[in-house]
Amino acid sequence: MKQIDKIYEYILVNSKEFTKEKLLKIKGFSADEVGAHLGVLRSNASRELNILCREKKIVKIRNRPVLYFDREQFMKKLNVTLNDDCEEIIEISEFISKASDNKQEDKSPFNSLIGYNISLKNQIEQAKAALLYPPNGLHTLIIGSTGVGKSLFANMMYEYYKRIKELPEDPPFIIFNCADYCNNPQLLLSHIFGHIKGAFTGAEKEKEGIVEKADGGILFLDEIHRLPPEGQEMVFYFMDTGNYNKLGETDRNRKATVLLIGATTEDPNSALLNTFIRRIPITINIPIFEERPINEKIELVQYLISKEAQRVNKTIKISSEVMKALIGSTTYGNVGQLKSNIQLVCAKGFFNCINTNKDIEINLALLPPNIKSGILTFGNETKDNTTMWNIMPSSITIQPDGNKTFLETDDYETPFNIYSIIENKTSLLQEEGMNDEEIKKFITTDINIHLKKFYDRFKNDGNRREGLLKIVDKDIVEFAEEIKILAENKLSKKLNERFIYATSLHFSALFNRIKKNTVSFDANIDLSISSESKEYEVAKDIHKLIEKKFNISIPNVEIEYLALLLNSIQESSRQERVGIVVAAHGSSVATSMVGIAKKLFDADNILGVDMPLEMTPSDILEIVIEKVKLVNEGKGVLLLVDMGSLNSFSDVITEKTNIITKSVDMVSTPLVLEAVRKCSVCDTDLNSVYSYLLTDFRGYTNGITAQLPQEKKQKERAIITICSTGKGAAIKLKELVENVTNDISSEDINIISLGLNDLTKSISEISEENNILAIIGITNPDMGIPFISIDQLIEGTGENILISIIKGKTIQPIVSTEKPKIIFKNLCIQTLDEFMTFLNPKKIYSLLDEFVNLIENLLHINFENPVKLRIMFHVACALERMVLNNGLVYDEDKLNFNKRTIESLKEASLIFKNALSINLTEDELYYIDDIIRLDSVQVEESTKS
């Protein structure tokens, strides 16, 4: 090492050990000191030090004698900036006041948080107090819902901690998620405290724990509620004493100084030991997104979009309507959900301009329905506060800023670059010869696959409950929710949401039969449920609760029905899919096609079998059987084969394995890709994807695929409805389905109601005489037949699926723009029946429907079903007010109304004048206009005349 390098290393190492106070007192190192320490003549040391000053590596401080200090450390210790031409410091005392002033003006790391001076102000003050408390700060617990930014807040606490400590080296900041090892307490404690050699099987050497790594700094324990009780006890002992022991040691003779920050989504009082909570004096509650003021919500949207603009290096333009939709659709997932939604829409916008130099433009038409509907929520939240609407910019344009850095600390940062994925897969599909339309379909699907987990992991079923409440009394639904919790606790198993739908509908139908005296209390039906089972005991408890809560007598046979229901409906541990096995002759034909499918869709439910021509059919069969067993998830397996005896394997495999299989020959890459898309992405059942590939799919060009073999068409078509008993609720469900089938098909379709008893056997017997199109109800028997759940039927998507099945069309994953009308009509009439006093709901419905349709045509508006319902109910009540001569008076400013809209409403309202001799007043029309302006989603043509 050269002499000058040795001198610089000495200055640098010793400068790092200085604190601000030491620097102001000692000021630096003299040439004598440097020379003496390194064995260099003073004159030589002085010459080299001056060279280092000119190279801007160190600074010279005027003193007697002259002193030297590392330039970067000088600026860091005093928090000052030196000009490039500054080689010599006249007097260090000049920087004392500058350092003090800069310290006051210097922005706290917390100031980078959106809302630091409003919604997060109190939380930041708490954090500062905790970190400044002598001697080493106070342990802190951060609580808040998923996605509010607890991890980010903890990181800001660490940044502030570094600033106030002014240590020569940054203190450690160790992050540990307690959920990673929550099911293995021994391994969890080993990670936290470390272990010695031989502490447990596999502990071949001593290991350092995160407490040891965090010594002198901060340990952030995320999801701290997942610590087992013994882990909490060890942690709070360490918090009390600073002492700990590694796993396998008996004496707690190790010491560390660590500030603990915990984070949890749970209520600490129920999720943590009281002795543990008492040792955490500071609790910081991070507010949910809905509690943030509107200006912060807008700022969060702009910030997150700017991150995407920088990532993709393109300008992003976004309309105010999209801003409202993004804000309104952010509910249960908080800022994390907002971030995921923005990543999704930006990825779709990027795909639209992938091969151009155009900016990314995001409008309402680009948004998926679940995000687009957020504009309704935004309108509901802000319709009484015009100030909030005025804050919203008409549009924003964000350009990429390469100099801007973003702190990534949360779980919502995608572990992949979605934009690179889009570019790479677009190129791959173009090379495969796929046209632009098909590429768009694949890429759109792919975007949704990659981002689905970020959006759906916090999703709830709140919207579906609203549909259920249209046909079942609220107290019945709430009671079903109560007994679901009761049953889960007593049976120690998870019941899915379908249990609530099943019991709600069943109780509703049962109570109606009791009121009409059509229930037999002497019925004695054997449902093959043991009276000794846990389900039977829970069913007896529920039976008593029903009689007590609703003050009615219930037949004892209901105990068997409830026991059967409890035994049948459980929460599936995962989403089952149809498995796929591709088998083809040649060294790598099948595996090559499978490889492309896996690369495009990240699919794990497909396997390939390459078969040399010399391999015997029996050997091939054994290999295919093993592959079928591996990919089977309970919904059957689709075989895609090339030729010969392979196509006859299906029946043999089903007989040997009891796994339902279907076989399609003339396999090709497009056929494999479409099968994976249907089975993995669209969650299509085996029969549907089999029929689709044989009859409807024609490849991605004008090629010809396999034709459907001739089958007998003698069986009658049937649809099966399933509820717990096959009576009451199942019959009510049957009536709903009959309304659909009668409306769209002139051919008779048998609607058959079944209970849960011997369900598989009953369906098998029915299938011998009938071609079962679909099963609708509370549980999926997994027999390879299309299944529609009750909740799907109620919320509307199920009706579209049923219509597609009856018409023989492919069940598409994208929701049809044609709204379900039959069940919508029934629900609407039933709801109107509860509100109307003077007018007949059945007769007025057609007028209301005609009124809404005319408004849509006149204003070029497309109402979603919830908005359509809202308008119809409001108008129905307005008509009755007209009958009573008690119309509403609109007392808001009328100058801002669109004349065209009011004129269109007047024209549409003539329907009621002609049919009922009822005139809607102008004030009532203003209220209708309010609903349209605030709640409807308008297509782009809506502003055109």
From TrEMBL:
CDD domains associated with the record: AAA (cd00009)
PROSITE patterns recorded: PRD_2 (PS51372), PTS_EIIA_TYPE_4 (PS51096), SIGMA54_INTERACT_2 (PS00676), SIGMA54_INTERACT_4 (PS50045)
Keywords for the protein's UniProt record, in alphabetical order: ATP-binding, Nucleotide-binding, Transferase
Annotated ranges, domain PTS EIIA type-4: 577-704
Domain PRD: 471-576, 839-942
Top-level taxon: Bacteria
BP GO terms, sorted: phosphoenolpyruvate-dependent sugar phosphotransferase system; regulation of DNA-templated transcription
Signal peptide location: none
One Pfam match: EIIA-man
Ranges of residues in domain Sigma-54 factor interaction: 113-347
GO molecular function terms listed in the Swiss-Prot or TrEMBL record: ATP binding; transferase activity
Matches recorded under Gene3D superfamilies: P-loop containing nucleotide triphosphate hydrolases (3.40.50.300), Phosphotransferase system, mannose-type IIA component (3.40.50.510), PRD domain (1.10.1790.10)
Record InterPro entries: AAA+_ATPase (IPR003593), P-loop_NTPase (IPR027417), PRD (IPR011608), PRD_sf (IPR036634), PTS_EIIA_man-typ (IPR004701), PTS_EIIA_man-typ_sf (IPR036662), Sigma_54_int (IPR002078), Sigma_54_int_dom_ATP-bd_2 (IPR025943)
GO cellular component: membrane
PANTHER family in the record: TRANSCRIPTIONAL REGULATORY PROTEIN, TRANSCRIPTIONAL REGULATORY PROTEIN LEVR
The name this protein goes by in its record: Sigma-54-dependent transcriptional regulator
The organism of origin for this protein: Clostridium chromiireducens
Lineage, top ranks: Bacteria, Bacillati, Bacillota, Clostridia, Eubacteriales
